[in-house]
Design goal:
Blueprint (H helix, E strand, L loop, with lengths): L22 E5 L2 H4 L12 H6 L17 H15 L3 E5 L2 H4 L9 H16 L3 E7 L5 H5 L6 H18 L5 E6 L1 H9 L11 H25 L4 E7 L2 E4 L4 H23 L5 H6 L13 H5 L5 E5 L3 E5 L15 E2 L15 E3 L14 H14 L4 E6 L17 H19 L4 E7 L18 E3 L6 E3 L1 H12 L7
Parallel strand pairs: 1-2, 1-12, 2-3, 3-4, 4-5, 5-7, 6-8, 7-11, 11-12
Antiparallel strand pairs: 8-10, 9-10, 13-14
Helix pairs in contact: 3-5, 7-9, 8-9, 13-14
Length: 484
Protein backbone atom coordinates (compact mmCIF):
# COMPACT_ATOMS: atom_id res chain seq x y z
CA UNK A 1 0.00 0.00 0.00
CA UNK A 2 1.29 3.46 -0.88
CA UNK A 3 1.99 5.84 1.98
CA UNK A 4 -0.76 8.38 2.51
CA UNK A 5 -0.89 11.60 4.47
CA UNK A 6 -3.89 12.21 6.67
CA UNK A 7 -5.52 15.45 7.63
CA UNK A 8 -6.31 16.42 11.19
CA UNK A 9 -10.00 15.94 11.82
CA UNK A 10 -12.07 19.10 11.48
CA UNK A 11 -14.61 17.63 13.89
CA UNK A 12 -12.64 16.45 16.92
CA UNK A 13 -15.56 15.69 19.25
CA UNK A 14 -14.51 12.68 21.33
CA UNK A 15 -17.84 10.92 20.85
CA UNK A 16 -20.22 10.98 17.90
CA UNK A 17 -23.21 8.75 18.58
CA UNK A 18 -25.94 8.83 15.94
CA UNK A 19 -29.66 8.73 16.71
CA UNK A 20 -31.48 5.43 17.18
CA UNK A 21 -32.72 4.06 13.87
CA UNK A 22 -29.81 5.49 11.89
CA UNK A 23 -29.11 3.15 8.97
CA UNK A 24 -25.63 1.70 8.62
CA UNK A 25 -24.79 0.28 5.23
CA UNK A 26 -22.38 -0.31 2.40
CA UNK A 27 -22.92 0.17 -1.32
CA UNK A 28 -22.02 -1.62 -4.56
CA UNK A 29 -23.02 -1.48 -8.25
CA UNK A 30 -24.00 -4.31 -10.57
CA UNK A 31 -21.40 -3.96 -13.34
CA UNK A 32 -18.63 -3.49 -10.79
CA UNK A 33 -19.28 -6.69 -8.84
CA UNK A 34 -21.66 -9.16 -10.51
CA UNK A 35 -19.67 -10.61 -13.40
CA UNK A 36 -21.56 -13.37 -15.24
CA UNK A 37 -21.71 -10.94 -18.14
CA UNK A 38 -22.99 -13.49 -20.65
CA UNK A 39 -25.00 -15.78 -18.39
CA UNK A 40 -28.73 -16.45 -18.10
CA UNK A 41 -29.68 -14.20 -20.97
CA UNK A 42 -28.00 -11.01 -19.78
CA UNK A 43 -27.50 -8.64 -22.69
CA UNK A 44 -24.58 -6.26 -23.28
CA UNK A 45 -24.49 -2.84 -21.65
CA UNK A 46 -22.62 0.26 -22.73
CA UNK A 47 -19.96 -0.62 -20.15
CA UNK A 48 -19.44 -4.05 -21.69
CA UNK A 49 -18.87 -2.38 -25.05
CA UNK A 50 -16.71 0.42 -23.64
CA UNK A 51 -14.51 -1.82 -21.50
CA UNK A 52 -13.86 -4.16 -24.40
CA UNK A 53 -12.70 -1.26 -26.60
CA UNK A 54 -8.88 -1.08 -26.51
CA UNK A 55 -7.52 1.91 -24.62
CA UNK A 56 -10.71 2.81 -22.77
CA UNK A 57 -10.02 1.07 -19.44
CA UNK A 58 -6.69 0.87 -17.66
CA UNK A 59 -5.02 -2.49 -18.25
CA UNK A 60 -7.76 -3.58 -20.65
CA UNK A 61 -9.83 -4.70 -17.66
CA UNK A 62 -13.53 -5.53 -18.01
CA UNK A 63 -16.41 -6.41 -15.72
CA UNK A 64 -16.95 -9.78 -17.39
CA UNK A 65 -16.08 -11.60 -14.16
CA UNK A 66 -15.58 -8.71 -11.70
CA UNK A 67 -15.83 -10.26 -8.22
CA UNK A 68 -18.38 -12.90 -9.26
CA UNK A 69 -21.09 -11.64 -6.93
CA UNK A 70 -23.68 -13.24 -9.21
CA UNK A 71 -22.56 -16.65 -7.98
CA UNK A 72 -21.21 -15.60 -4.57
CA UNK A 73 -23.92 -13.29 -3.27
CA UNK A 74 -24.71 -15.55 -0.30
CA UNK A 75 -21.07 -15.47 0.77
CA UNK A 76 -21.13 -11.68 0.43
CA UNK A 77 -24.32 -11.40 2.48
CA UNK A 78 -22.62 -13.44 5.19
CA UNK A 79 -19.84 -10.82 5.19
CA UNK A 80 -22.48 -8.10 5.55
CA UNK A 81 -23.98 -9.94 8.50
CA UNK A 82 -20.58 -10.24 10.15
CA UNK A 83 -20.16 -6.47 9.79
CA UNK A 84 -23.57 -5.85 11.31
CA UNK A 85 -24.89 -3.92 8.32
CA UNK A 86 -28.50 -2.88 8.73
CA UNK A 87 -28.87 -1.89 5.06
CA UNK A 88 -27.27 -2.77 1.72
CA UNK A 89 -27.37 -0.55 -1.34
CA UNK A 90 -26.92 -2.38 -4.65
CA UNK A 91 -27.91 -1.69 -8.23
CA UNK A 92 -30.07 -3.75 -10.53
CA UNK A 93 -28.47 -4.51 -13.86
CA UNK A 94 -30.89 -3.20 -16.48
CA UNK A 95 -29.46 -5.48 -19.25
CA UNK A 96 -29.73 -8.49 -16.96
CA UNK A 97 -33.45 -8.05 -16.38
CA UNK A 98 -34.40 -6.43 -19.72
CA UNK A 99 -31.64 -7.20 -22.24
CA UNK A 100 -33.07 -5.18 -25.13
CA UNK A 101 -34.07 -2.21 -22.97
CA UNK A 102 -37.76 -2.75 -23.68
CA UNK A 103 -40.45 -5.39 -23.42
CA UNK A 104 -40.97 -8.19 -20.90
CA UNK A 105 -38.39 -8.87 -18.23
CA UNK A 106 -36.02 -11.81 -18.38
CA UNK A 107 -37.29 -14.45 -15.97
CA UNK A 108 -33.74 -15.52 -15.07
CA UNK A 109 -32.64 -11.94 -14.45
CA UNK A 110 -35.63 -11.11 -12.29
CA UNK A 111 -35.21 -14.36 -10.35
CA UNK A 112 -31.62 -13.45 -9.46
CA UNK A 113 -32.75 -10.25 -7.76
CA UNK A 114 -35.60 -12.08 -6.04
CA UNK A 115 -33.05 -14.49 -4.56
CA UNK A 116 -30.74 -11.64 -3.58
CA UNK A 117 -33.49 -9.66 -1.88
CA UNK A 118 -34.88 -12.71 -0.10
CA UNK A 119 -31.41 -13.64 1.19
CA UNK A 120 -30.88 -10.11 2.47
CA UNK A 121 -34.20 -10.11 4.27
CA UNK A 122 -33.45 -13.51 5.78
CA UNK A 123 -30.23 -12.03 7.15
CA UNK A 124 -32.08 -9.04 8.61
CA UNK A 125 -30.53 -6.60 6.14
CA UNK A 126 -32.69 -3.97 4.46
CA UNK A 127 -32.36 -3.97 0.62
CA UNK A 128 -31.80 -0.60 -1.04
CA UNK A 129 -31.91 -1.13 -4.81
CA UNK A 130 -30.76 1.50 -7.29
CA UNK A 131 -32.34 1.11 -10.70
CA UNK A 132 -29.65 2.74 -12.82
CA UNK A 133 -25.94 2.74 -12.07
CA UNK A 134 -24.68 3.51 -15.59
CA UNK A 135 -25.22 0.15 -17.36
CA UNK A 136 -27.55 1.21 -20.17
CA UNK A 137 -28.53 -1.72 -22.42
CA UNK A 138 -26.46 -1.45 -25.58
CA UNK A 139 -29.51 -1.61 -27.90
CA UNK A 140 -30.76 1.65 -26.38
CA UNK A 141 -27.38 3.30 -26.96
CA UNK A 142 -27.49 2.02 -30.53
CA UNK A 143 -30.78 3.90 -30.85
CA UNK A 144 -29.15 7.12 -29.58
CA UNK A 145 -28.78 6.57 -25.83
CA UNK A 146 -29.67 9.06 -23.13
CA UNK A 147 -29.55 12.05 -25.52
CA UNK A 148 -32.75 10.58 -27.01
CA UNK A 149 -35.97 11.35 -25.17
CA UNK A 150 -37.33 7.85 -25.70
CA UNK A 151 -34.65 6.44 -23.38
CA UNK A 152 -36.31 8.22 -20.45
CA UNK A 153 -39.58 6.45 -21.21
CA UNK A 154 -37.83 3.11 -21.64
CA UNK A 155 -36.28 3.62 -18.20
CA UNK A 156 -39.64 4.36 -16.60
CA UNK A 157 -41.10 1.20 -18.14
CA UNK A 158 -38.18 -0.89 -16.88
CA UNK A 159 -38.54 0.64 -13.41
CA UNK A 160 -42.24 -0.13 -13.33
CA UNK A 161 -41.68 -3.74 -14.40
CA UNK A 162 -38.95 -4.56 -11.88
CA UNK A 163 -40.86 -2.74 -9.16
CA UNK A 164 -43.81 -5.03 -9.88
CA UNK A 165 -41.50 -8.00 -9.24
CA UNK A 166 -39.81 -6.78 -6.05
CA UNK A 167 -42.19 -4.17 -4.68
CA UNK A 168 -43.90 -6.62 -2.36
CA UNK A 169 -40.69 -6.93 -0.34
CA UNK A 170 -38.68 -3.74 -0.99
CA UNK A 171 -40.17 -0.43 0.20
CA UNK A 172 -37.31 2.00 -0.60
CA UNK A 173 -35.96 2.67 -4.10
CA UNK A 174 -33.29 4.83 -5.68
CA UNK A 175 -33.88 5.62 -9.34
CA UNK A 176 -30.62 6.95 -10.82
CA UNK A 177 -27.08 7.16 -9.50
CA UNK A 178 -24.90 10.20 -10.23
CA UNK A 179 -26.63 11.56 -13.32
CA UNK A 180 -23.75 14.06 -13.68
CA UNK A 181 -21.30 11.23 -14.35
CA UNK A 182 -23.64 9.33 -16.64
CA UNK A 183 -24.31 12.44 -18.74
CA UNK A 184 -21.11 14.45 -18.75
CA UNK A 185 -18.42 11.78 -18.36
CA UNK A 186 -20.31 9.54 -20.74
CA UNK A 187 -21.29 12.01 -23.45
CA UNK A 188 -19.04 15.10 -23.07
CA UNK A 189 -15.55 14.06 -21.93
CA UNK A 190 -15.83 10.44 -23.05
CA UNK A 191 -14.13 9.23 -19.85
CA UNK A 192 -16.98 6.81 -19.19
CA UNK A 193 -19.26 4.70 -21.35
CA UNK A 194 -20.43 5.19 -24.01
CA UNK A 195 -17.33 7.33 -24.58
CA UNK A 196 -18.90 10.08 -26.70
CA UNK A 197 -17.59 13.65 -26.85
CA UNK A 198 -20.66 15.64 -27.80
CA UNK A 199 -21.37 18.52 -25.38
CA UNK A 200 -24.87 19.28 -26.65
CA UNK A 201 -25.78 15.59 -26.45
CA UNK A 202 -24.46 15.47 -22.88
CA UNK A 203 -26.86 18.22 -21.84
CA UNK A 204 -29.77 16.38 -23.43
CA UNK A 205 -28.64 13.20 -21.67
CA UNK A 206 -28.66 14.98 -18.31
CA UNK A 207 -32.21 16.22 -18.86
CA UNK A 208 -33.47 12.83 -20.00
CA UNK A 209 -31.86 11.08 -17.03
CA UNK A 210 -33.77 13.45 -14.77
CA UNK A 211 -36.95 13.01 -16.80
CA UNK A 212 -36.57 9.24 -16.58
CA UNK A 213 -36.20 9.55 -12.81
CA UNK A 214 -39.44 11.51 -12.51
CA UNK A 215 -41.40 9.23 -14.82
CA UNK A 216 -40.10 6.17 -12.95
CA UNK A 217 -41.18 7.58 -9.59
CA UNK A 218 -44.63 8.30 -11.00
CA UNK A 219 -44.98 4.73 -12.27
CA UNK A 220 -43.70 3.07 -9.10
CA UNK A 221 -45.65 5.29 -6.73
CA UNK A 222 -48.83 4.43 -8.61
CA UNK A 223 -48.21 0.77 -7.72
CA UNK A 224 -47.13 1.33 -4.11
CA UNK A 225 -48.05 4.81 -2.81
CA UNK A 226 -46.50 4.05 0.58
CA UNK A 227 -43.04 3.26 -0.73
CA UNK A 228 -40.15 5.69 -0.46
CA UNK A 229 -38.42 6.98 -3.60
CA UNK A 230 -35.35 9.06 -4.31
CA UNK A 231 -32.23 9.54 -6.41
CA UNK A 232 -28.51 9.68 -5.63
CA UNK A 233 -26.48 12.69 -6.77
CA UNK A 234 -22.73 13.25 -6.46
CA UNK A 235 -22.16 16.59 -4.79
CA UNK A 236 -19.01 18.59 -4.16
CA UNK A 237 -18.10 21.53 -2.00
CA UNK A 238 -16.71 24.12 -4.43
CA UNK A 239 -14.14 26.75 -3.48
CA UNK A 240 -12.58 29.55 -5.55
CA UNK A 241 -8.79 29.36 -5.65
CA UNK A 242 -8.42 33.04 -4.86
CA UNK A 243 -10.28 36.32 -4.32
CA UNK A 244 -10.54 37.35 -7.99
CA UNK A 245 -13.83 37.79 -9.82
CA UNK A 246 -12.66 35.19 -12.34
CA UNK A 247 -12.20 32.59 -9.60
CA UNK A 248 -15.56 33.44 -8.04
CA UNK A 249 -17.24 32.99 -11.40
CA UNK A 250 -15.44 29.69 -11.94
CA UNK A 251 -16.77 28.44 -8.59
CA UNK A 252 -20.28 29.59 -9.52
CA UNK A 253 -20.09 27.77 -12.84
CA UNK A 254 -18.83 24.45 -11.48
CA UNK A 255 -21.23 24.55 -8.54
CA UNK A 256 -23.99 25.26 -11.02
CA UNK A 257 -23.22 22.35 -13.33
CA UNK A 258 -22.15 19.85 -10.66
CA UNK A 259 -24.66 20.55 -7.91
CA UNK A 260 -27.48 22.97 -8.72
CA UNK A 261 -28.19 21.64 -12.23
CA UNK A 262 -29.53 18.48 -10.56
CA UNK A 263 -30.67 19.66 -7.12
CA UNK A 264 -32.79 22.51 -8.44
CA UNK A 265 -35.02 20.48 -10.79
CA UNK A 266 -35.28 17.62 -8.30
CA UNK A 267 -36.20 19.79 -5.31
CA UNK A 268 -37.46 23.07 -6.81
CA UNK A 269 -38.82 22.14 -10.22
CA UNK A 270 -36.56 24.48 -12.20
CA UNK A 271 -33.11 24.68 -13.74
CA UNK A 272 -30.83 27.42 -12.37
CA UNK A 273 -31.08 30.48 -14.63
CA UNK A 274 -27.35 31.23 -14.56
CA UNK A 275 -26.47 27.72 -15.73
CA UNK A 276 -28.96 27.99 -18.57
CA UNK A 277 -27.13 31.15 -19.63
CA UNK A 278 -23.77 29.36 -19.40
CA UNK A 279 -24.94 26.62 -21.79
CA UNK A 280 -27.16 28.75 -24.02
CA UNK A 281 -25.03 28.17 -27.13
CA UNK A 282 -25.75 24.42 -27.00
CA UNK A 283 -29.51 24.74 -27.50
CA UNK A 284 -30.43 23.02 -24.25
CA UNK A 285 -33.77 24.83 -23.95
CA UNK A 286 -35.06 23.03 -27.02
CA UNK A 287 -35.06 19.63 -25.32
CA UNK A 288 -37.02 20.80 -22.24
CA UNK A 289 -40.69 20.43 -23.06
CA UNK A 290 -43.75 21.72 -21.26
CA UNK A 291 -44.46 19.55 -18.24
CA UNK A 292 -40.95 18.06 -18.04
CA UNK A 293 -39.93 19.95 -14.93
CA UNK A 294 -43.15 19.01 -13.17
CA UNK A 295 -42.39 15.36 -13.98
CA UNK A 296 -38.83 15.66 -12.66
CA UNK A 297 -40.01 17.46 -9.52
CA UNK A 298 -41.78 14.47 -8.00
CA UNK A 299 -42.05 14.45 -4.23
CA UNK A 300 -38.85 12.86 -2.92
CA UNK A 301 -38.95 10.75 0.21
CA UNK A 302 -35.17 10.57 0.33
CA UNK A 303 -32.14 12.06 -1.37
CA UNK A 304 -28.88 10.17 -1.66
CA UNK A 305 -25.63 12.11 -1.47
CA UNK A 306 -22.41 10.68 -2.86
CA UNK A 307 -19.49 12.70 -1.52
CA UNK A 308 -15.76 12.15 -1.93
CA UNK A 309 -13.90 15.46 -2.14
CA UNK A 310 -13.86 19.22 -2.63
CA UNK A 311 -13.10 21.08 -5.87
CA UNK A 312 -10.95 24.21 -5.79
CA UNK A 313 -11.28 26.07 -9.09
CA UNK A 314 -9.90 29.04 -10.95
CA UNK A 315 -10.91 31.10 -13.93
CA UNK A 316 -7.35 32.41 -14.28
CA UNK A 317 -5.70 29.66 -16.29
CA UNK A 318 -3.35 31.65 -18.52
CA UNK A 319 -0.34 31.87 -16.21
CA UNK A 320 3.14 30.59 -17.17
CA UNK A 321 4.10 26.91 -16.94
CA UNK A 322 0.57 25.66 -16.39
CA UNK A 323 -0.02 27.94 -13.41
CA UNK A 324 -2.87 30.31 -12.70
CA UNK A 325 -2.17 33.91 -11.79
CA UNK A 326 -2.04 32.89 -8.12
CA UNK A 327 0.93 30.62 -8.89
CA UNK A 328 -1.03 27.45 -8.14
CA UNK A 329 -0.78 24.48 -10.50
CA UNK A 330 -3.88 24.22 -12.68
CA UNK A 331 -5.16 20.94 -14.08
CA UNK A 332 -8.33 18.97 -14.67
CA UNK A 333 -9.52 15.93 -12.72
CA UNK A 334 -10.57 14.49 -16.06
CA UNK A 335 -9.20 14.25 -19.59
CA UNK A 336 -8.35 17.10 -21.93
CA UNK A 337 -11.94 16.84 -23.15
CA UNK A 338 -13.78 18.72 -20.43
CA UNK A 339 -17.08 17.47 -19.02
CA UNK A 340 -17.88 21.02 -17.91
CA UNK A 341 -20.11 21.98 -20.80
CA UNK A 342 -20.15 25.75 -21.22
CA UNK A 343 -17.29 26.20 -18.77
CA UNK A 344 -14.50 24.23 -20.39
CA UNK A 345 -11.92 26.90 -19.54
CA UNK A 346 -12.26 26.47 -15.76
CA UNK A 347 -9.11 25.11 -14.11
CA UNK A 348 -8.89 22.83 -11.07
CA UNK A 349 -6.28 23.64 -8.43
CA UNK A 350 -4.53 21.31 -6.01
CA UNK A 351 -5.13 23.12 -2.74
CA UNK A 352 -2.49 21.14 -0.84
CA UNK A 353 -4.76 18.88 1.17
CA UNK A 354 -3.85 15.23 1.80
CA UNK A 355 -5.08 12.91 -0.93
CA UNK A 356 -6.33 9.34 -1.31
CA UNK A 357 -4.79 6.86 -3.72
CA UNK A 358 -7.09 8.29 -6.38
CA UNK A 359 -5.42 11.68 -6.00
CA UNK A 360 -8.65 13.08 -4.54
CA UNK A 361 -8.16 15.66 -1.79
CA UNK A 362 -9.51 14.68 1.60
CA UNK A 363 -11.82 17.30 3.08
CA UNK A 364 -14.52 16.17 5.46
CA UNK A 365 -15.52 19.79 6.06
CA UNK A 366 -16.84 19.78 2.50
CA UNK A 367 -19.34 17.08 3.40
CA UNK A 368 -20.55 19.14 6.35
CA UNK A 369 -20.86 22.12 4.00
CA UNK A 370 -22.90 20.11 1.49
CA UNK A 371 -25.24 18.74 4.16
CA UNK A 372 -25.92 22.04 5.87
CA UNK A 373 -26.43 23.76 2.51
CA UNK A 374 -29.12 21.25 1.61
CA UNK A 375 -30.87 21.93 4.91
CA UNK A 376 -30.63 25.71 4.57
CA UNK A 377 -31.25 26.22 0.84
CA UNK A 378 -33.68 23.51 -0.26
CA UNK A 379 -37.07 22.09 0.75
CA UNK A 380 -36.84 19.48 3.52
CA UNK A 381 -36.12 15.88 2.55
CA UNK A 382 -34.59 12.94 4.40
CA UNK A 383 -30.91 12.68 3.46
CA UNK A 384 -28.67 9.62 3.20
CA UNK A 385 -24.98 9.38 2.47
CA UNK A 386 -25.23 6.76 -0.27
CA UNK A 387 -21.50 6.73 -1.15
CA UNK A 388 -18.44 7.87 0.75
CA UNK A 389 -15.08 6.15 0.87
CA UNK A 390 -11.44 6.11 -0.16
CA UNK A 391 -9.59 4.20 -2.86
CA UNK A 392 -5.98 3.11 -2.54
CA UNK A 393 -3.42 0.79 -4.17
CA UNK A 394 -3.48 -2.14 -1.76
CA UNK A 395 -2.20 -5.69 -1.49
CA UNK A 396 -2.40 -8.29 1.25
CA UNK A 397 0.52 -8.03 3.64
CA UNK A 398 2.59 -10.84 5.11
CA UNK A 399 -0.06 -11.40 7.76
CA UNK A 400 -2.65 -12.09 5.06
CA UNK A 401 -4.67 -8.94 5.70
CA UNK A 402 -4.74 -5.22 4.83
CA UNK A 403 -3.89 -2.59 7.43
CA UNK A 404 -5.83 0.23 5.71
CA UNK A 405 -5.38 3.01 8.23
CA UNK A 406 -5.94 5.57 5.50
CA UNK A 407 -9.47 4.31 4.84
CA UNK A 408 -10.28 4.17 8.56
CA UNK A 409 -9.10 7.75 9.01
CA UNK A 410 -11.09 8.91 5.98
CA UNK A 411 -14.36 7.31 7.06
CA UNK A 412 -13.87 8.40 10.67
CA UNK A 413 -13.46 12.05 9.67
CA UNK A 414 -16.47 11.99 7.37
CA UNK A 415 -18.68 10.28 9.94
CA UNK A 416 -17.78 13.01 12.42
CA UNK A 417 -18.72 15.61 9.80
CA UNK A 418 -22.05 13.81 9.38
CA UNK A 419 -22.60 13.81 13.12
CA UNK A 420 -21.81 17.52 13.35
CA UNK A 421 -24.42 18.15 10.65
CA UNK A 422 -27.01 16.08 12.52
CA UNK A 423 -26.44 18.19 15.63
CA UNK A 424 -27.26 21.26 13.49
CA UNK A 425 -30.61 19.80 12.54
CA UNK A 426 -29.71 18.21 9.21
CA UNK A 427 -32.16 15.32 8.60
CA UNK A 428 -29.45 12.75 7.85
CA UNK A 429 -30.87 9.27 8.33
CA UNK A 430 -28.16 6.88 7.20
CA UNK A 431 -24.65 6.27 5.89
CA UNK A 432 -23.55 3.80 3.19
CA UNK A 433 -19.81 3.54 2.73
CA UNK A 434 -18.33 2.84 -0.68
CA UNK A 435 -17.69 0.03 -1.01
CA UNK A 436 -18.37 -3.34 0.53
CA UNK A 437 -15.92 -5.12 -1.81
CA UNK A 438 -12.93 -4.27 -3.91
CA UNK A 439 -14.25 -4.23 -7.47
CA UNK A 440 -14.03 -2.99 -11.06
CA UNK A 441 -13.42 0.74 -10.65
CA UNK A 442 -14.71 1.94 -14.03
CA UNK A 443 -11.99 3.45 -16.25
CA UNK A 444 -9.40 2.62 -13.54
CA UNK A 445 -10.11 -1.09 -13.96
CA UNK A 446 -8.86 -3.14 -11.02
CA UNK A 447 -6.00 -0.80 -10.16
CA UNK A 448 -7.78 0.99 -7.29
CA UNK A 449 -9.47 -0.59 -4.30
CA UNK A 450 -12.32 0.97 -2.30
CA UNK A 451 -13.57 -2.09 -0.44
CA UNK A 452 -13.87 -2.85 3.24
CA UNK A 453 -13.20 -6.40 2.06
CA UNK A 454 -10.14 -7.29 0.00
CA UNK A 455 -10.79 -9.50 -3.04
CA UNK A 456 -8.12 -11.60 -4.72
CA UNK A 457 -9.30 -11.23 -8.30
CA UNK A 458 -7.62 -14.46 -9.41
CA UNK A 459 -9.19 -16.68 -6.75
CA UNK A 460 -12.16 -14.52 -5.62
CA UNK A 461 -11.09 -15.05 -2.01
CA UNK A 462 -12.55 -12.41 0.30
CA UNK A 463 -10.54 -11.09 3.28
CA UNK A 464 -11.96 -8.37 5.56
CA UNK A 465 -9.54 -5.47 5.97
CA UNK A 466 -8.87 -3.64 9.22
CA UNK A 467 -11.46 -1.09 8.08
CA UNK A 468 -14.13 -3.80 7.99
CA UNK A 469 -13.53 -4.69 11.62
CA UNK A 470 -13.40 -1.00 12.54
CA UNK A 471 -16.67 -0.28 10.72
CA UNK A 472 -18.33 -3.23 12.45
CA UNK A 473 -17.36 -1.62 15.75
CA UNK A 474 -18.76 1.72 14.58
CA UNK A 475 -22.10 0.05 13.82
CA UNK A 476 -22.12 -1.71 17.18
CA UNK A 477 -21.41 1.57 19.00
CA UNK A 478 -23.74 3.68 16.85
CA UNK A 479 -20.88 5.95 15.82
CA UNK A 480 -17.10 6.16 15.56
CA UNK A 481 -15.09 5.37 18.70
CA UNK A 482 -13.27 7.94 20.79
CA UNK A 483 -10.31 9.41 18.96
CA UNK A 484 -7.27 7.28 19.41
Amino acid sequence: MTSVQHSDSTFPAPTATFPAGFRWGAATAAYQIEGAAGEDGRGPSIWDTFARTPGKVLGGDTGDVAVDHYHRFREDIALMSDLGLTSYRFSISWPRVQPSGSGPLSQAGADFYRRLVDALLEAGIEPWPTLYHWDLPQPLEDAGGWPERDTAYRFADYADRIHAVLGDRVPQWMTINEPWCAAFLGYASGEHAPGRREPAAALRAAHHLMLGHGAAVQAMRARHPGHRFGAAVNLYAISPAGPSDADADAARRIDGMQNRFFLDPLLRGSYPADVLTDVEEYGFDACVREGDLATINQRLDLLGINYYSRFTVTGETEGPDGEGETGQAVSSPFSTHSPWVGSEFVGFVNAGRPVTGMGWEIDASGLYEVLTRLKDDYPPVDLYITENGAGYDETLNGEGTVHDEGRISYIDEHLRACHAAVTKGVPLRGYFTWSLLDNFEWSWGYSKRFGLVHVDYATQRRVPKDSARWYADVIRRGGPPDHR
